[in-house]
Amino acid sequence: MTLPETMRAIEISEPGGPEVLTPATRPVPQPGPGQILIRSAYAGVNRPDALQRAGSYNPPPGASDLPGLEAAGEVAAVGPDVSGWRVGDAVCALLPGGGYAEYVVTPAAHALPVPKGMTLREAACLPETFFTVWSNVFMRGGLRAGERFLVHGGSSGIGTTAIQLARHFGARVFATAGSDDKCAACLRLGAERAINYRDEDFVEILRAEGGADLILDMVGGSYLPRNVKALADDGRLVQIAFLQGPKVDLNFAQVMTRRLTITGSTLRPQSDLAKARIAEALRARVWPLLEAGRVAPVMDSEFPLEEAAAAHARMESSGHVGKIVLRIS
User: Fold this and answer.
1) Residue limits of the Enoyl reductase (ER) domain (predicted)?
2) Which residue in 83, 188, 214, 225 is a FRET match for 204, CA 20 to 30 A apart?
3) What's the structural domain count of the chain?
4) Is 169 a domain residue?
């Protein structure tokens, strides 16, 4: 494959709102040892992209300053010491950054084959979301069949994925969302109960069921003490974001007397080896489900690369259900 010298990209001109996402021309990156270069067809849009745009989520050392943490396309070049991938292979990949561009490099071990029967548009929705859900719900949270699982933001990309996977692996799934339509979407995906947080109290509902064995939360703020109340004895709370902020007064006596576990993680700063292990688990446990059509990404909308600002505005409006993608080629 003959590579151009430059590529179209979207860069962050300065910290701020969606309007600071600016079309630009950048040199095509070159893959280093253990890396592949992907010619992207689609890139996923995620909340961490908006945090980076606002200046509150810096790229890790050595990563591209361009936003974008997942993409799907074809392998355009392979670096030294790469096995298992060839030029022309269809892949989707977790990225350290740089996804809002025509070409992007990533560790080869963080790429996965596009599931059979799935389009590149759909595949671009998989890496960031599925890596996050699998590592936090199943690896860190230890969700088991028969347990009561509550996911906040059930209509988000994370939420729609968590509902499907938890239901498939035998959990009883509860979800919160902000409208009746979003709650209906959660029910269609397999939630046993969808809770409109504007009208109902998830604490009361979960306590009536015996409490949640596991909660996946990205809200934080006032939800933290309410999550603790909603947990069953020996329950686990996994925190993956703080849309309402990370600081709150919390009575830790409940954590001690009821033997609760509070944990959490962010994906981007983890080591390449940790991410490779998540990829291996997904390939073995989840990719067969995707290929069989038993689990699928939920698509909300598509925007051209040059309209990344509109995509961010859509995401931050919280009106979307499922994933938003950028069409690159």
Assistant:
1) 16-326
2) 188
3) 2
4) yes
Domain range for 200 is 130-264
Residue 210 CB contacts under 8 Å (≥ 6 apart), including other chains: 148, 232
Q: Is 135 helix (H, G, I), strand (E, B) or coil?
A: helix
| CATH classification at residue 137 | 3.40.50.720
Per the prediction, the chain carries an average pLDDT of 97
Alpha helices in the chain (DSSP H): 47-54, 120-123, 127-133, 157-168, 180-189, 202-208, 223-230, 253-257, 272-285, 287-291, 308-316
- How far is it, in rounded angstroms, from Cα 149 to Cα 203? 13
> Do 141 and 252 reside in the same domain of the chain?
yes
Residue 7 binned pLDDT confidence (cut-offs 50, 70, 90): very high
Q: What is the pLDDT of residues 96-148, one digit of tens each?
A: 999 999 999 999 999 999 999 999 999 999 999 999 999 999 999 999 999 99
- The two most distant CA atoms of the chain are separated, in Å, by 64
Q: Are 187 and 195 in contact (CB under 8 A)?
A: no
User: Do 319 and 213 share a structural domain?
Assistant: no
Are 258 and 176 part of one and the same domain?
A: yes
Helix count (H) and strand count (E) of the chain? Answer: 11, 15
**Pair 23, 117 in one domain:** yes
| pLDDT value, residue 318 | 87
**Residue 240 half-sphere exposure, CB side, CA atoms within 13 Å?**
26
CATH number at residue 79: 3.90.180.10
Task: Give the confidence band of 212 by pLDDT, cuts at 50, 70, 90.
Answer: very high
* Contacts for 189-194: CB closer than 8 Å, 24+ residues apart: 189/160, 189/163, 189/164, 189/298, 190/163, 190/164, 190/166, 191/154, 191/163, 191/167, 194/154
DSSP 85-110: --TT-EEEEE-SS--SBSEEEEEGGG
Which residue(s) pair with 326 in the sheet?
43, 303
